[in-house]
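thread: overnight batch results

M.L. [08:02]
morning all. the overnight job finished for the chain we discussed friday. pasting input first so we're all looking at the same thing
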Amino acid sequence: MHFSPDCSTLPASRPLRLFQLTGMTLLCSTILTTPGFAETMPSRPAPHKAGTAVKTTAPAKKAHKKPASEGSTSENVLVTASSTATGVTNTTPGGGLLPPETAAKAQQSVTRDFIAKQAATSNPISLIQYIPGITLSNSDAFGQSDQSSFYMRGMGQTSVGYTFEGIPIADPSSYAPFTSEASDTENISKITVQQGVSDITSPVYNSVAGAIKQYLSDPSARLGGKVNVSYGNHQLAREFVRFDTGELGHSGVKAFASYSYGTNAQWLGPGRDRRSHVDAKAMKEWGNGNSARVFLTWTEQSFPFLMSISKAQWNQSGRSAAYYNPAYTPGDVNYYKQNSEERHSVVIGAPLVFNLGHGLTFTSEPYYVHLHGAGNNGQDQVEEGYNGTRPTGNLNIPGAVDGSAAVQAVDNFNQHTAGFNNVLSWKAGHNELQAGYWYNYYNQTEQAPFSVIGPDGTAENFWGKYPIRDQYGDAVMQFNIHLIQQLNSLFISDTYKMFNDRLTLNAGLKFVMMSYKSTNLIPGDNYNYGRSDAQPLPQMSASYQITPNDQVYFDAATAFREPSGILVYGNYWDAGAPEIDLAHSTGLKAEYSISEEIGYRHTGLVNITASLFNYNMTNRQSSVTAYTGGRLVSQYINAGGQTSRGAQIAIGLRPWHGLSPYASFQYLHATMDNNLPDKTDYIRSAGKIAINSPAYTANFGLSYDDGNFFVNGYMSYVGSQYSTFMNDEKMPAYAIGNATIGYRFKKLWFAKSPQIQINALNLTDNKYLASGGGSFNAHPVKGVFGSTLKGSAPLYTVGGGFGLVFSMSSGF
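M.L. [08:03]
and the structure it wrote out:
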């Protein structure tokens, strides 16, 4: 296939990158994100190995370079692209971790060249762990659990906006990114990480640290599909199958559907993880830039919990301190079957794009997300307690000894989210004006009843269907909260390009209005709580293309995050006394940040991206995590002001003789600006280093792929980090290494690109603590007013152990 240097003959829907090689020789590299894309191109040369996807025609003798004033002649460039059944093209620098970017902000993507070579069990968050600024706190051996968490530039995952195919998919109250609900690894086309500033068009309202955008692959234009089976240690077994319809008749409609089922024994302690998942998508493109897509995901999963433990428990018992008891004895509240979670979810989105002519484009995406689950724990309950402030009478709990018995404390949550995000864009000359409106409606009920435990240690009903009732016939609960949240957001943004489009200037304003209404039906509770908030969010940016290969940029932006968690708006009652264990927060204020970045990018044989960043935050949201009655609960804290500054860099080589090295690094200095209130006094936290903010993180990797044989290895280093606001306890530094080896075979009968692959995670089985829950101070300290403030040991998550995954896959 022949293209002019501006690549204008490629389909507009495919992202293009333009590189200057020598003189007038240009190479257009197409970043392929969907399996089988090469087959959909109008024509192509003879087949060749995937490792030699791009070739250029060379002149017979050295060309004479004309002065710029004389113009330049068009030169045909031969571009061939091939893709394996897994979507690998071997064109992305850094082994798929550093594709070229042009946004005037710190931004880095992960493509199929990397994703396809990771374990099929990988959670989307584990796929971005090597991007600078990301610190993964992985708590399982296969990188798949939603119990894992991550930090971006020292800020927790609840400070990161998360979208899937353009719709918000994180929990609207806790902002937890339930990534296992999004899609299977085989269907992820790309993940983009914006370390600092989210797009003004993105439907997120918690993106203080930045945003993550995940994309689902489009259906193939040809009939076919792919299969993958994976087996590993800890009794891992996973099967995946995808079917693509190809174009249905001559309608232009194409679709795919996939199903996977995976299970494994808990890598640490008893119990099993189970997950069933469906992805489906249909689409049609017509005219010049019109498209309609509809997608659906369905997930059902269950998993046992791991305990969060103190450093003293870790030093004494190591990993074994974190798992629950494998066998039940009467009265045992630490039996593993009582301490687990089950979730069901449905995600539906319908992105629409219409070219209205005259430079006008309208995009609209309605969506619906339903999440229902229960996360339960064992707990002791007295026979004569309280339901709120009302005595229960004798509950006559079976198995009671000395007036108390082991019960299962249920946390049954049911969430419905619906909304739409509309954007109108107008391009005229060098200017593009955008305006948009986003509406989001969120309805959540969350109840915490108790259920009787039978002689085998399991509850009468996992979901609390048959709760323990008081003398009035009402279910005894610790909370019974109903939260309704509504959001209206407007934005306007203008982009202007100058000097032959080398200079790009942008300014925009987003205005977010939110309202909350919460009720708690516990007897004696305040019952009703309401709150409204409105936040103006201006941002601006500028970028300059110094050469076709070099870019500098600057951005300044604002962001905010509302207090997170359902218990922020409701009381948590003690069922053994007429008391509140955790009171709902009062005087709530949204966290607000002002950030600046300056960055540089270079594209070519070597890709480089680097940036310096600065954040100034007020009403910094943090939390203290502790077990309350057997349930792990996080309590909201307004940590005052915080200043975070740092630098990050990533370097990757475009595949050269099959080799593609990668390295990234971040330095972070995050300090607290205020003393924090602790009861009637203040701890002296001003000037201390913020928790979960390692000063140094680094990643190194090397990938080799010759089209048949492929191998890679990656290592992450995370420096030590404080786990208390007083900096009197620290989580040690750690390093983790993962590796992949595999081989692709030639086409065999109907099997297209069959391959085998082995992934080793935490290759050396390093034993480490992955994250700290935080506390004010680990040891007694003197407060600002002279009080002696008692210490509390912070809790930690144990890092995942060695995981080995053997996979066989093929297209058909």
